Amino acid sequence: MATTKTTTKEVLGVYGPGSNHFVGDGFPVRNLFPSNGVKQVSPFLLLDYAGPAYFPPANQPRGVGEHPHRGFETVTIAYQGAVDHRDSGGNSGTIRPGDVQWMTAASGVVHEEKHEREFAQRGGAFEMVQLWVNLPKAYKMTAPRYQSIVSDQIPTVDLGPGAFARVIAGELNGIAGPAKTFTPVNLFDLRMNPGSTAELNLPEGHNTAIVLLGGDVTVNAKQLEGEAQLAVLSPTGTAVSLTAKEHSLLLVLGGEPINEPVASHGPFVMNTQAELRQAIEDYKAGKMGHLQ
After folding, report:
1. Of residues 180, 176, 184, 138, the one with CA closest to residue 157
2. Sequence-distant (≥ 6) Cβ neighbours of residue 121 within 8 angstroms
3. Which residues contact 138 (CB under 8 A, 6 or more apart)?
4. How many Cβ atoms from other residues are within 10 Å of residue 282's Cβ?
5. Closest to 8 in 3D by CA, of 217, 221, 210, 196
6. Is 283 helix (H, G, I), strand (E, B) or coil?
7. Distance set, CA 209 to CA 8, 13, 157, 203 (Å)
């Protein structure tokens, strides 16, 4: 009988945040890439870890006002607090703990993200992650799309005593996540108790990163501890072994790399400088819409 040899994904490097700043007045973020020079995580373009932070009560919701995007997707994962979203496509909703918002800007969207009004008025702990996911050239100018994924829609996979994963996108142990993606993407939300272990089998050839939001874990024998730590793994290999020394909260990011040129400027990610200039002109001309 033929056997399949399992090889371990190598930890290429461990990185802390490259910058620490506010986005608008409601999102105190630590950027885990690309500000620290990490580039081996295509199709992912950016990861901002907002919080954990406490916001006192306020009369008006904090956040980010109307702004555009083109050429990629934004993915927001809520852990604590709540955010209201509305966009020029007529979509609106509230992202609460456990929920995920997957917004495909594609040809162009204008939106705003602000603390949900009741949360703003009472104050409290706030913690979220936002990812930017690139789109291949063939999809950059397609129609925008909006996926509101509530916590109850996200399946859970038991990884052993004291460890489990929520499958947001892709597949883990035969369980598929609800998010629809344009290229193969895995996005898992992991929780591990002290002393627990987990074995992940991830696709060969996919870029992979393990993000420790908080806790103390070893990733293929390499230690990550504290908050906002990023381990970048090799595309080669399939096996990832995790052991938690403390209660740990992690994200697993993986995907098939998009091997195309990337040209970016602020909220636009295209393939060429000419396409960026066109994006700016289109936004100024109102072709990405406005909030009503």
Report:
1. 176
2. 57, 58, 59
3. none
4. 16
5. 221
6. helix
7. 14, 10, 19, 12
**81/121 Cα distance (integer angstroms):** 12
pLDDT digit string, tens, across residues 100-144? 999 999 999 999 999 999 999 999 999 999 999 999 999 999 999
Q: How far apart are CA 136 and CA 106, in angstroms?
A: 10
Nearest to 173 by CA among 158, 183, 152: 158
198 pairs with which residues across the strands? 242
Give ∠ CA 67-69-74 in degrees, rounded to 5: 105
What DSSP state is assigned to residue 271? S
Measured CA to CA, the distance from residue 17 to residue 227 in angstroms comes to 10
Residue-wise pLDDT for 209-235, tens only, equals 999 999 999 999 999 999 999 999 999
Cβ proximity of 34 and 18 under 8 Å:
yes
pTM listed for this prediction: 0.95
Q: C-alpha dihedral over 10, 243, 15, 265, to 10 degrees? A: 90
Residue type (1 letter), 9: K
Q: How far apart are CA 113 and CA 94, in angstroms?
A: 10
Residues in the chain: 292
